Amino acid sequence: MSLTVLASAYRLKPLHRLQRIQAHLMSSHVEPEVLLEKVGRTGVITINRPKVLNALNLTMIRQIYPQLKKWENDSEVDIVIIKGAGGKAFCAGGDIRAVTEAGKAGGSLAQDFFREEYILNNAIGAYRKPYIAIIDGITMGGGVGLSVHGRFRVATEKTLFAMPETAIGLFPDVGGGYFLPRLRGKLGLFLALTGFRLKGRDVQRAGVATHFVESNKIPDLEKELVDLKCPSNADISKLLEFHQKQSSLDSEKPFVLEKHLSEIDRLFSSSSVEGIMQNLRADGSDFANKQAETLSKMSPTSLKITFKQLQLGAALSLQDVLVMEYRLSQACMRGCDFHEGVRAGKLLLWWE
């Protein structure tokens, strides 16, 4: 049926009819939420929901996981690159509004989403081929799970990292119980409890990213990665280090938490959350007071769960941590804090 015939059915003025129908047809074209491509001998995953900062949903997980397994066993694929579309975010987190809505309706999404997300996280951590995450933009929650367990994580000046889950009645999942306690000193516990945001080069300085490359150099880096012939981890490291040396932006600035690292180690060394709060209040410094104020706004239940999660996770494998976190996630789904945190709009703290 032609546009003109369709327009007559709308009983609108001819020009308006055509414009309205053309707009409808254009809007009905749905972009894939994940782009999966093979470029030469490189598997490329592009998270493609830029309007919602590439938030991760179950459909996307079910596309990414089998493709990763297929490429892992494909003799014609040497490396995998994962990145985000749109220029603002790598992945700003899981689409947890959908999870909470399904939970209210009695659906199984809360079980399916967390279980399959954690299976994907574990697959990334155990991946037998070089896995390179280009975390150019906002990288929080589920986006951290898609990147931090891979062998290579490339931050740019646009990277914004945080694990802000204690603000919404959850905990830093996606393997946070594994990688956070393995950061230096008490830095991981500090990041987990406070949701402190790291930006740009500081994401690498903290140990979350392995390399830093300026955003405008990323296209060249990607091309050179694709052009590598049967690269080893050492070959990729060498290339990433070369591009890092060409990236001087903010190289003279100290780590944002550098002058507070000894304070963090001292103040966050305790056998309980209550002990940490006592340390902060007794210290009385501006830094300590600010952290005490931040923690007072978080879910008390989430703080206690997170503290124990990292305490136990320090001695567990990634797989065992993810099993523990799945059980914790389902306990949180049965509680009140998580649903209230999302309902109250605290989710917006992730993306502001």
Automatic annotation (TrEMBL):
<dbReference type="InterPro" id="IPR032259">
    <property type="entry name" value="HIBYL-CoA-H"/>
</dbReference>
<feature type="domain" description="Enoyl-CoA hydratase/isomerase">
    <location>
        <begin position="43"/>
        <end position="344"/>
    </location>
</feature>
<comment type="function">
    <text>Hydrolyzes 3-hydroxyisobutyryl-CoA (HIBYL-CoA), a saline catabolite. Has high activity toward isobutyryl-CoA. Could be an isobutyryl-CoA dehydrogenase that functions in valine catabolism. Also hydrolyzes 3-hydroxypropanoyl-CoA.</text>
</comment>
<protein>
    <recommendedName>
        <fullName>3-hydroxyisobutyryl-CoA hydrolase</fullName>
        <ecNumber>3.1.2.4</ecNumber>
    </recommendedName>
</protein>
<keyword id="KW-0496">Mitochondrion</keyword>
<keyword id="KW-0101">Branched-chain amino acid catabolism</keyword>
<comment type="similarity">
    <text>Belongs to the enoyl-CoA hydratase/isomerase family.</text>
</comment>
<dbReference type="GO" id="GO:0005739">
    <property type="term" value="C:mitochondrion"/>
</dbReference>
<comment type="pathway">
    <text>Amino-acid degradation; L-valine degradation.</text>
</comment>
<dbReference type="GO" id="GO:0003860">
    <property type="term" value="F:3-hydroxyisobutyryl-CoA hydrolase activity"/>
</dbReference>
<dbReference type="InterPro" id="IPR029045">
    <property type="entry name" value="ClpP/crotonase-like_dom_sf"/>
</dbReference>
<dbReference type="GO" id="GO:0006574">
    <property type="term" value="P:L-valine catabolic process"/>
</dbReference>
<keyword id="KW-0378">Hydrolase</keyword>
<dbReference type="Pfam" id="PF16113">
    <property type="entry name" value="ECH_2"/>
</dbReference>
<dbReference type="InterPro" id="IPR045004">
    <property type="entry name" value="ECH_dom"/>
</dbReference>
